[in-house]
Amino acid sequence: MSDDIDDPRRDFLVKMLTAGAFATGVWSLPATVQSMGKIPKLLPPGKSFFDISGEVMVNNKLATLDTFVKNNDVVSTGSGAHAVFVVGKDAFILRGNSSMEIEGNEIISTIRVFSGKLLSVFGHREDKKPLHMRSSTATIGIRGTGVYIESDPEKTYLCTCYGITDLSSNVDKNVQERIVSEHHDKPKYLLAKPSQKGKLITPAPMINHTDMELTLIEELVGREPPFGLEGGLYKGPRRDY
Fold first, then answer.
1. How far is the C-alpha of 153 from the C-alpha of 115, rounded, in Å?
2. Rounded to 5 degrees, what are φ and ψ at 196?
3. Which domains does the chain have, with CATH numbers?
């Protein structure tokens, strides 16, 4: 990825930051991004965290910006905290009161979201095998995409921000659905108990995450999302830099 400020995408990010867009809420951003105040760029080797606020733990030890996150680690956050970090080709924003485990050998194979809220962008798997996300009520197959998930015992919220996901209910493995999304097209709830219409997978609104956040964490792994940040228009597959 080039650091050239003439890159229109990075130039736009710089303008938003220097104009105080984060602080003024122009983009209606959560505190996760408002508090950063720095331009994202490809993280160097050996670096995991881009931003930490509040109590962030890795394997039950208090994390700092120098903490390295690797496969088979557990990352958790306290009330009002957040963590923005990278593992390999994948990047995450873990919001407050959340806990996740990263499973895998050389690359991530499974993300377990025990509780809370997680925004993720995933690179394409070199072994061509799908990565899985697991929550209390859902199993999600993922290939090179961006997703936002909220997990609690009663339901899982999932927005396939772009790309393809395969949803499966943990309550009934026969309940499955493939989502093909260009730009937050088909958010879903995966329920612990059937809805009034007897459904375990139901439509949902887009909530609690933004295109600016997706752009920021894609930057950390040297990619750009498949939409125009200024207008949100779909413009094709993601590009690596």
1. 8
2. -60, -25
3. 8-228 (2.60.120.1440)
Give me the DSSP letters along 90-101: EEEEE-SS-EEE
Asked if 240 and 222 touch (Cβ cutoff 8 Å), the reply is yes
Q: Are 37 and 220 in contact (CB under 8 A)?
A: no
Which pLDDT band, with edges at 50, 70 and 90, does 28 fall under? very low
Interior/surface letters 77-92, b for 16+ CB within 10 angstroms, e for the rest: beeebbbbbbbbbbbb
pLDDT score of 40: 83
Amino acid at 224: E
Give yes or no for a contact between 86 and 221, defined as CB atoms under 8 angstroms apart.
yes
Using the predicted structure, report yes or no on whether residue 14 has a pLDDT greater than 60: no
Q: Calculate what percentage of the chain has a pLDDT beyond 90.
A: 69
The tens digit of pLDDT for each residue in 160-175 reads 999 999 999 999 999 9
Side chain identity at 68, as an amino acid letter? F
